[in-house]
Amino acid sequence: MPNRRTVIISGLLVMTLLMFPVGTVSAQECSLDADQLNPLVDVYNENLDQVPGLVKGQLSDQRIDVRIDAADGERRFAVSTDSDGRVTQFEEAVAEDPTVRVETDESTTCDVITSDDPAATFNQAYENGDIEVTGVGVTNRVKIGAVKVGVSVVKSLSGLF
Question: In the CATH scheme, what is the code of domain 4-143?
Fold first, then answer.
């Protein structure tokens, strides 16, 4: 079972649905196909009880538009969460009326999903600006900002203990 810090970070990362620890995937197998990414949704949903209320609350009732710049063109994924933060929709499509946007590239995505430590790899890519997460509209920008601050605080405090 993933540790609490990994699940906290994964709560933010669900917006990309590409970073959950579901085992190592070799670089040759890296694919942006929805079929390969669907198991990541299951891992998140199975561990939803470990996501802190603050983070889970901000991830609830969201429509997330994920854009991945790939060598063969742009890939888009539509993700929806319910009032409990559970992912209820994940499909290769442009999200209608999104509340959150996530942007990254194919190389970063493959680095994350093939990593032995996907959460750490995602975190590094996010800190480097290789993954952008933004709220759509004022309210959603504030909500996503609160999640980012919450994750940052937890990350800072985890170094103290």
Answer: 3.30.1050.10
